[in-house]
# Entry
Amino acid sequence: MRNFAAVDLGSKKLVVAIARASRDYLEVLATQRENSRGIGRGIIRNLREAKEVLKASIELAERDSDVQVEEVYLNLSGVNSEVVSALGKTVITGERITKREILRAMETAKRITIPQNRYTIHVFPTEFTVDDQEVDEPEGMFGTVLQVKVQIITHLLTVVRNMENCVNGAGFYIKELVLNQVGNIYSLLTKEDRNLGVAIIDIGAETTDVVLVLKNEIHRVFSYEVGGKDFTSDIAIGLNTPVKEAERIKVKFARLFTGEEEEIIEVPLMDGSEKNISSNELYGIIFPRAEQLFTWIKEDIVRAGWELRATSGIILTGGGALLSGLKNFASSFFNTMVRVSGPQKLENIKNLSEEFLSPEYSVLVGILKYAQEREGKEEESAEGPFSFIKRILGGKKWK
Ligand SMILES: Nc1ncnc2c1ncn2[C@@H]1O[C@H](COP(=O)(O)OP(=O)(O)OP(=O)(O)O)[C@@H](O)[C@H]1O
Ligand SMILES: [Mg+2]
# Structure
């Protein structure tokens, strides 16, 4: 069993989990959380700072766990990511379908033109057909023509290269990149959700990542350069209070509803004096930001031809989803069922404390589950030349 690090490098926090995977479960050996540095709106803004904090965090987790790691599963913000579908086909040469042929079919699908400035981070096979009949797992089946439908998720090459440079500079290398939206799918969705359809909205500190999932496929991904920190800045500016105070006031008092019972909040001002405001005034400051973000999301959802009514609704996650009243506000804004959720079902992840059930850790836990799927498969059959196929395929259809 190899040890690896799962890393969620966010705009606010950097979380590391060192783990090892076996076929059936994953064991967490150490976790580490820091304030992230050098990251802004989901991408590297200061390479030196990002490298330093990443190196320090992984090394601390290494010390805690008493193991060394080389490989990192790293998240990637969804800003500038895209998903496209493609079909691939191959003729079966022998009697039965082999892994090599599955890979060949996938490769032909990947041949659809991906612009030179983009990098493929995920290729998920979503449908296999053998001689025009849909099958779950083609390997070992009889047939003459194998067709595969894949979903390809790409990102800007420069963003990926800078991430790689950062990880390598810190002394590690990237085993796989995991798009935030993909991490959230692994973390939050049951098989039923994946099939019935759901929208996940991950409100981070400086970005919001959205994914629409239906019939086991990623229908669309959207990302916005807006997050919880913007609510904090609105409060800081609106009340003329330092950012640190604005953050405290937001977490403790801000709520997305007005009420008869007004609370009076003491606000320290920039000049050292204080003033009192009511909770309804605070609502007036944060409401426009929430409304603007949800309006953008709604427009994109409508443009994508997505019928929220025909799905199981919306899951809100990420630290920003903890804003009081957001669930009900989202529910009436989108006119659908909404739940606020953190990672689901930790049963095959051993030794991860309960605090990781918070929505802030959805991406990290999703990366752990994703890594478990990959590493577990490699463990299952360390068959050398084909292990790279499993890495692309995840061994089977994505569901
Ligand atoms: N109880 C709370 N009420 C309101 N906001 C909260 C609460 N707890 C955390 N937040 C906000 O959540 C945000 C951090 O979320 P998260 O940890 O998901 O961000 P991140 O992953 O580091 O950033 P990003 O995904 O944008 O790169 C901060 O803006 C913080 O103020
Ligand atoms: Mg995040």
Observations:
- The chain is about 35% helix and 30% strand.
- Residues 82-155 form a domain with the Dna Ligase; domain 1 fold (CATH 3.30.1490.110).
- Confidence is low (pLDDT under 50) at residues 381-399.
- The radius of gyration is 22 Å.
